[in-house]
Amino acid sequence: MVKYLLKMKNLLEKFKESSLIQVSRIDNVKADQLAKLPSSMAAIQSRRITFLSLDKAAIEEQIEVMWTNPTPPSWKEDIVKFLIDGTTPKNKKEVRALRVKASHFVMIDRELYKCGFSQPFLKCLTSKEGNYV
């Protein structure tokens, strides 16, 4: 509604004299009838009705859209941050759980590996990397 008001104000500057009133939808019966016209077309096949339609919008608006495909956070991000620089969550329970979980992992050449007793280090993958393998 604001954009139409701005458009109308720009057009009114071209006239010498003008007045502006807002008519509520309840009081504007003709607008209501026009709004209901497309849904009632099937019932009025025998009558002849003439109506005008706009070829283009009264307000030209360009919208900039940026498409992004955000990657969901990986399950290993918190562990990697903790092992590299000691970053911990703010919640004390989460800190303790992270320390216990991180004790089973090691960083080698900026890659996360899981330690095992009787098995070699297992490289940790993201979901995308796991689907590729």
Account of the protein in words:
The protein is mostly helical and about 130 residues long. It has a domain at about 75-130. The protein has five helices and three strands. Strands 1-2-3 form a three-stranded antiparallel sheet, covered by helices on one side. Strand 2 and strand 3 (about 120-125) form a beta hairpin. The model has no long low-confidence stretch (mean pLDDT about 80).
What secondary-structure arrangement, pairings included, does this model have?
Layout: H1 2-12, H2 29-40, H3 77-85, H4 92-102, E1 105-108, E2 111-114, E3 122-123, H5 127-132
Antiparallel strand pairs: 1-2, 2-3
Helix pairs in contact: 3-4
Sum this structure up briefly.
By secondary structure, the protein is mainly α. The protein has helices at 2-12, 29-40, 77-85, 92-102, 127-132, and strands at residues 105-108, 111-114, 122-123. This is RNase H type-1 domain-containing protein.
Order of helices and strands: HHHHEEEH
Tell me how many strands there are: 3
Structural class: mainly alpha
Total helices: the number is: 5
**How far is the N terminus from the C terminus?**
54 Å
Strand order of the largest sheet: 1-2-3
Identify the notable features of this structure and list them briefly.
133 residues, 3-stranded antiparallel sheet, 37% helix, elongated, RNase H type-1 domain-containing protein
